[in-house]
Automatic annotation (TrEMBL):
<feature type="transmembrane region" description="Helical">
    <location>
        <begin position="122"/>
        <end position="147"/>
    </location>
</feature>
<feature type="transmembrane region" description="Helical">
    <location>
        <begin position="305"/>
        <end position="333"/>
    </location>
</feature>
<feature type="transmembrane region" description="Helical">
    <location>
        <begin position="354"/>
        <end position="376"/>
    </location>
</feature>
<feature type="transmembrane region" description="Helical">
    <location>
        <begin position="225"/>
        <end position="243"/>
    </location>
</feature>
<feature type="transmembrane region" description="Helical">
    <location>
        <begin position="264"/>
        <end position="285"/>
    </location>
</feature>
<dbReference type="GO" id="GO:0022857">
    <property type="term" value="F:transmembrane transporter activity"/>
</dbReference>
<dbReference type="InterPro" id="IPR050277">
    <property type="entry name" value="Sodium:Solute_Symporter"/>
</dbReference>
<feature type="transmembrane region" description="Helical">
    <location>
        <begin position="6"/>
        <end position="27"/>
    </location>
</feature>
<keyword id="KW-1133">Transmembrane helix</keyword>
<protein>
    <submittedName>
        <fullName>Na+/proline symporter</fullName>
    </submittedName>
</protein>
<feature type="transmembrane region" description="Helical">
    <location>
        <begin position="39"/>
        <end position="59"/>
    </location>
</feature>
<feature type="transmembrane region" description="Helical">
    <location>
        <begin position="187"/>
        <end position="205"/>
    </location>
</feature>
<feature type="transmembrane region" description="Helical">
    <location>
        <begin position="159"/>
        <end position="180"/>
    </location>
</feature>
<keyword id="KW-0812">Transmembrane</keyword>
<feature type="transmembrane region" description="Helical">
    <location>
        <begin position="79"/>
        <end position="97"/>
    </location>
</feature>
<dbReference type="Pfam" id="PF00474">
    <property type="entry name" value="SSF"/>
</dbReference>
<keyword id="KW-0472">Membrane</keyword>
Amino acid sequence: MAVEANATLLYIVVGYLIVMLGVGAWAYGKTETAEDFMVAGRSLGAVVIAGTLMATWMGSGTVTGGANSIAYDNGLWPALLFGTAALIGIGILKALAPRIRGFDKLTVPEMIEEELGREGRIISLVVIAFAYVGIVSYQFIGLGFVLNVTTGISVTQGTIIGTVVIIALAAMGGLMSVAYTDAISAFLMLIGLVVAVPFVVLNAGGVEGIAANVPETHFDALGNLSFLQFFALWAPPLLLILADQNMYQRIIAGESDEGTNTGLIAWFVGVAAAMTLVPVIAFASRAMFPELDPGMALIATTTEIPVWVGGILLAAAAAFIITTGSSYLLSACTNLSQDLYKGFINPNASDQRVFWLTRLFVIVLGVFAFVLGQYFPTILEVQMYSYTAYGAAITPPLLAIFLMRDRLTKRGGLTGMIVGALLAVTWDTVLASPYGLDAVIVAAPVGGLLIVAVSYLTTDTSTPTASRT
């Protein structure tokens, strides 16, 4: 079965995009300071926190990569197991939320500098900017897939349009606009998935029809993946979510501790639902479209179910992609303005200068992300590469700051960060994956072990400890 563009679906998607841009315009008028732009003035309630956390985490990586691609390529069970990484991470973040909120910092590099000095801030700034640009790049491509299905234009042309929309939304109102559009998008996505699943399964021939038209290995526990291959896909999302600056900023942006806690619980429930429903749709898509690009699995099904159902699902997918792209783009630009410019170049910069410089960086970095996205063959590949770089260099030292308390030393933290980052970047590309192991299996564990070992073998008297509460 071939995928045929359906222009009727475009009207629903465009209508929703207009709503999102309208919210962005509203937020533009509400955003006056750098804190408004970066953490929404710390004014978000439980419902908005839950929605923005879910929509930010589950973007193009979910609906065109991650669980979607794994379900199509490898089977339903490994895709469902893949989703447990995020759920474990959310549980740990909930436990750490009081400490995260008590840190009183706007960015992860600021948190790391508090314990590991300016060197730690510089390393984390470079790594986060690199990883987030990669993540933003495949959001652009994901929206290109949506526009390809709805209009028939090429994925490249759709990607250019997606780039413009995502940059515009991030630049207008910062987190204030992103958070509210996130919340709307998250609830729309859940509704779209719940309504679409029975239509997709029936259209694919029901359970028996699907079973007869997918490879036999797709019913094995790990599909056609070995344990190490599966682990190399499963570990990067866990490592990213544990230290993801976007999640930390949203936890900080909560108006109260109680509301933030409620929002985190609702986020867990929403992710559990979405990470079950997306694989089911993508798995059914394999029976319907056996020769499809895996990234198109969920999106393609919208052309074969009733238009109103497909429109809701496609608008929801587009919403997830757009809000995630805006969030990661905004977060990376926050690092450039808050950590690089104000932290090192001009410490006395005014709030307004930092505010407007962040908007400028949104445009510049957005264009760079588009260019970068043209060099990766699949969304899943750039997704895992970005997650691994972040998870190996940022997650171990950040968790050490929260969990090792006074035992962490500057030498230990910096050693783990540098070695983890170098291994993440060079293990697969320069060293050609020695022993057949993926970078994530080596980089993060080695970095973490070095942090612990070097910290216990060294002593620091200059590292601040006031924030370790």
